[in-house]
C-alpha cells in the first residue's frame, strides 16, 4: 500500500515539471519569429526520475537548448511541428497527473469513510 503524502508529493512534482515544460513549449512557439532564438526544453524523463527518487522539488527544472534542430538564416531554430507535438504530449501528461491525484484523493476519502 502506498504512503499517501509521499504519493501526493510525487504527483505534485510530476504536475510541476509538466507545467514548467508546457510554459517552455508555449514560449518557444511565441518566439518563432525572434531572430537568433533557440528552442528550449527540459529533460522530462530525468526530472521525473528525480521526482520518483524523492529529490526535493526545485523552483524550476533544468532548462537546456535543444540540439540538432535546423536553423533558419536568422539563427532561429523553432519548429512548429515539434512544438505542437511537445505541447500535445505535455497536455496529456498533465491530464494524467491530475487524474492520478483524483484517484489518490478518492482512495483516501474511501479509507476515511470506511473507518466511521
Walk me through what this model shows.
With 116 residues, this protein is mostly helical. The chain has one domain (4-114). Helix content is 61%, strand content 5%. The chain has helices spanning 4-30, 44-52, 80-114; strands spanning 40-42, 63-65. It has a two-stranded antiparallel sheet with strand order 1-2. Helix 1 packs antiparallel against helix 3 (80-114). It is elongated. The mean pLDDT is 89.
Major β-sheet profile: 2 strands, antiparallel
Residue windows where pLDDT falls under 50 for at least 5 positions: none
End-to-end Cα distance, whole Å, is: 20 Å
Rg over C-alpha atoms, rounded to the nearest angstrom: 18 Å
- Tell me the number of structural domains: 1
Kindly report the oligomeric state of this protein.
single chain
Query: What is the number of helical segments per DSSP (H or I, 4+ residues)?
Result: 3
Mean pLDDT: 89
- % residues in beta strands: 5-15%
> How do the SSEs run, as a string of H and E?
HEHEH
Detail the topology: elements first, then pairings.
Layout: H1 4-30, E1 40-42, H2 44-52, E2 63-65, H3 80-114
Antiparallel strand pairs: 1-2
